[in-house]
Amino acid sequence: SSSHYVASLAFSPDSKYLAAGTEDGAVVVWDLTSRSVSTRIAKPDHWNCGVRLLAFSPDGQTIAHDGPGLPVQVRQLTDPGTVMALKGHTNAVNTLAFSPGGRWIASGGFDALRLWDAGSGEELGARNEHFGTNQVAFSPAGKHLATSADDGKIRIREVLTGKVVRTIDGPLHSGWSAGVAYSPDGTKIAAARMRGPIGVWNAATGEEIATIRTGQDERDMVGSLAFGPRGRVLLWVETGCHANVGGNRWSIWEDTITEEEAHPARVRFVTLVHGISADEVGVVEQADIRVLAL
Questions:
Q1: Phi (first) and psi of residue 265, to 5 degrees
Q2: pTM (2 decimals)?
Q3: Alpha-carbon distance 210 to 282, whole Å?
Q4: Which of the 8 DSSP states describes residue 258?
Q5: I need a labelling partner for 139 at 20 to 30 A (CA). Which of 56, 99, 103, 284 fits?
Q6: With contact defined as beta carbons under 8 Å apart, do 82 and 102 qualify?
Q7: What is the pLDDT of residue 70?
Q8: Helix (H) or strand (E) holding 251
Q9: What one-character DSSP code corresponds to residue 98?
Q10: What does the DSSP 8-state code read for residue 42?
C-alpha cells in the first residue's frame, strides 16, 4: 500500500507487473509473482502533482507516464533512473498509449495529438486539435488510432499519415467524449461522454451497435471503460451522487444486459488483465489496490 492516494494504475500486458502512480508524483511497480515491489520511482523534487497517466509497452519492459514540466517520461524497468523525455506538448497531457507492436507512443492533450518513436523519442507527427484530445486508443492491428475530443466526436486516423478516415458522432451527438476503447478483435469501438450514455459502434462502418444508458443522476460521470478479452463484455466506472451506492459504482454490459455492483470506495478507473485464468479488474480505492475477479 501507499501513504498517498493512487492516481493511476496499469497492468503489464503479460500480467507480471502492476504499476501505480501516486498523487504525490511517485511510481511504484509490483512484481505480481513475488508480490513485492520491483521498481520504485521517487517523486521529483519540488513537484507534488499526481502521476495520472501510465502505460506499459507490449513487452512489459518499458513504462511511460506523465511528469513535471509537461513532457511524457519513458523508462526501462531494468534502468528506471534513465529517462527519455517526450518534449513537445505545450499544455497538459490527457492520454498516452503504446501501439500494439511497441514502435510508437501516442499522446494527446489540449494542444495537440502527437506520435512518437518509442525507441528514440523522436516526434513523428503532430495534429493540432481545436477541441483537444481526451483519450487515444490504437486498433489491435496498430494501423489506426481512435481519439475522443471535446466536440463529442470520435475520429479514426491512419497512424502514419494522421489522415482521418472516419468520424463518429459521440453519444447523443453532443457534449464531450471521455473514454474510448477498441474491442480486442478491432471490430467495435466504445466511447462515453463524461455525463451521458456509452456508445458502441462498428469500427469499420461507424454503424451504431448499442447505446448504453448509465447513471441514476444527471451528475454521474463515466471515468473510464474497457472491453473484456473476447470483446463481448464492456466494463466501465461511474462516479456520481447516488445516495444508495456511496457515490460510485462499476458496471458491466453484455449484449443488452447490464449488471451493476455498488462500490462504496473512491473508484476512479478500471483496467482489465488478459492472460490470467479469469478476467481481472483493477480497482483503486484511496491508498488500497484490490484485484477483483469477474
A1: -85, 180
A2: 0.79
A3: 25
A4: E
A5: 284
A6: no
A7: 62
A8: strand 248-254
A9: E
A10: P
CA dist., res. 158 & res. 161, Å (int) = 6
* Amino acid (1-letter code) at residue 233: V
Report how far residue 134's alpha carbon sits from residue 143's, in angstroms, rounded to the nearest whole number.
20
C-alpha cell at 165: 478516415
Interatomic CA distance for residues 147 and 157, integer angstroms: 8
What contacts 225, CB < 8 A, 6 or more positions away? 179, 181, 190, 192, 198, 234, 235, 236, 237, 270
Spatial distance between the Cα atoms of 17 and 271, rounded to a whole number of angstroms: 13
Single-letter code of the amino acid located at 19: A
Burial 83-100 (b: 16+ CB within 10 A, else e): ebebebbeeebbbbbbbb
The three cell numbers locating residue 217 = 443522476
Neighbours of 121 (CB within 10 A): 17
The helix/strand/coil state of 173 is: helix
DSSP 3: S
Q: Are 192 and 198 in contact (CB under 8 A)?
A: yes
- Rounded Cα gap, residues 82 and 272, in angstroms: 29
Tens-place pLDDT, residues 156-188: 999 989 999 999 886 555 555 667 899 999 999
Residue with cell 456511496: 246
Q: Is the dihedral of CA 270, 268, 64, 22 positive or negative?
A: negative
Coil/strand/helix, residue 171: helix
